[in-house]
Fold these 2 entries.
Entry 1:
Amino acid sequence: MPSSVMPTTTGAGGRTLPAAVSATGLRKSYGDKTVLDGIDLYIPAGSIFALLGPNGAGKTTTVRILSTLIDPDGGRAQVAGHDIATDPQAVRAAIGVTGQFSAVDGLLTGEENMLLMADLHHLPGREGRRVAAGLLERFGLAEAARKPAAAYSGGMRRRLDIAMTLVGGPRIIFLDEPTTGLDPRSRHTMWQIVRELVAGGVTVLLTTQYLEEADQLADRIAVLNDGRIAAEGTPEELKRLVPGGHIRLRFSDPSAYRSAASALRGADLPHGASRKGDAPADEALTLRIPSDGTQRELRSILDWLDSAGIEADELTVHTPDLDDVFFALTGGTDQSRKAVR
Ligand SMILES: Nc1ncnc2c1ncn2[C@@H]1O[C@H](COP(=O)(O)OP(=O)(O)OP(=O)(O)O)[C@@H](O)[C@H]1O
């Protein structure tokens, strides 16, 4: 395939989706330590893809390979339609990368940092100033633009870092742990920034140790563990991989609750739900019916509720959260669970 042709796949409705990033069989070892043991990735243009994994899983190594900072020992990858091995310059021209170690120079002001990037991208002076001012404004840094970046908070530095990445107008952005160490407010601001980037047509590959972050942002998630992709899919698909989903019925009338609970005990529900469905003794008057969360099962449970004359005041579907998935897939201990949160 010529290096300028983007690989494609057939998406929903038979549409052909161009890949912003595609990789097959990426391998990397340091000495006798295998860091990546054959990674395949497919990231459609205009989407957010999260590489989720514990410390040392190989996330940064993957980003460094895809951004041509290091060579893989094996496998192939294309970024923006360019082969990382044969056309690294074109790859670099198409991407922006912000890493765990930021490019921000603390001695320079925010504005000076931006203008330096504009210079690096050979923007003429006036155009450079216009782009810099626009991005500083967009990222809420206009007021602090004349202050040295060393005086910025962690969240401001991270925003400046992304603003600097955007000076060259990249169509694909790699964000390596963009919110590690940020407080909840700054993390939410960063999430909003990522969403806006993608709304503007940019493709984002982000690495994260935070399950909630992947859940909030990503169209698709790959769980990286021990140098391999343990599972890949939409957040909802991943959550369906592990048990723990249920339908919750809440009643306000205690007698309706009691009769529903007794009907449920004798019921023959899908998914073996009936016997376990008689929820905890419950002051909140709720019943839980185990469910895999699929449309088919939900429909049959609703049909059964109708036929049994059960009408709850509230019905909610609970899928297992990514915590459940992550620890099922990575075999994490309580110790690593703490480290990952
Ligand atoms: N240059 C190197 N030399 C030797 N080992 C390395 C090198 N770079 C990475 N490693 C090792 O490769 C493994 C994966 O590292 P990587 O930084 O890709 O993980 P990560 O998933 O990004 O983890 P973290 O969340 O801690 O950043 C680690 O065990 C690390 O020590």
Entry 2:
Amino acid sequence: MSQDDLKLSVARAAIQYIPEGKIIGVGTGSTANFFIDELARIKNRIVGAVASSRATADRLASHGIKVFDLNDITEPLPVYIDGADEITAKGAMIKGGGGALTREKIIASASEKFICIADESKLVDILGKFPLPVEVIPMASQLIARKLAVFGGKPVLRMKEGKPFVTDNGNVILDVSGLQIKDPANLEEKINNIVGVVTVGLFARTGANLCLMGCSDGVKTLAFQ
Ligand SMILES: O=C[C@H](O)[C@H](O)[C@H](O)COP(=O)(O)O
């Protein structure tokens, strides 16, 4: 089975968690894209979706799924479905490889349940092999890079086509490599508290409730507290 086959298998498995007649939260990335394409098949069962990025909003809209602004939603979203760059057996994640971490964390916090969809390559014992994305205010990027280095990793400004990568929110991203994150909730809080940091791509305090993990012998369901 290819990695794409595994992503498709978890995208399909996630459909059973979509409640009828509701607005749901939808994440960003290649696994989320498989999910959006599966969601399109049952689009008449939902009212619509809140998107965690412009790319996701465009893909939802291209399938004729109504996209809602979070500001127009007055009740918690029943479910948020998204991928991860790394996930532990306790449901803590690194996210933001696609640069959508801030909107992802906002929508996750607006949702009753976070269902992570991931292939088995994403399961790790200790977070940090994947460089930790940190979205920052552009004028503070060098200052914050020096502060992040104190945690032992190497922060590098994310680039795209020779220029700093700019998020949907107009900010830049520092990718911190070389970390071994043994206490994700603690590091999430510490990095969040650095002035000028918008969001750290550690999702421990707002971790997943459930992970549908695509393995070569089938989809496994990992439930977290
Ligand atoms: O910013 C992007 C998101 O956090 C993605 O959910 C994450 O990067 C995983 O993406 P993929 O499903 O493409 O591996």
